[in-house]
From TrEMBL:
Transmembrane segments: none annotated. It comes from Amycolatopsis acididurans. This is UTRA domain-containing protein. The lineage of its organism: Bacteria, Bacillati, Actinomycetota, Actinomycetes, Pseudonocardiales. Residues 5-55 form the UbiC transcription regulator-associated domain.
Amino acid sequence: MLRHGPAILPEHVCRALRVPENTAGFELVRLRSLDGVPALYSVNYSPPALVPVVAAAHDVLEGKPR
């Protein structure tokens, strides 16, 4: 996990999630590795309704598999 927390969702994300522009949501930025080699960089956004669920997922936020 590189970064996580509340964030204003980018315009294209608001359109995709069908929420108003400048909506606050949750952002997860991760770098995943295979055998110690970086393999995937991902940025995930969650809409406002899911912020409490994602914020409470401590294993996910600590980068631990579920």
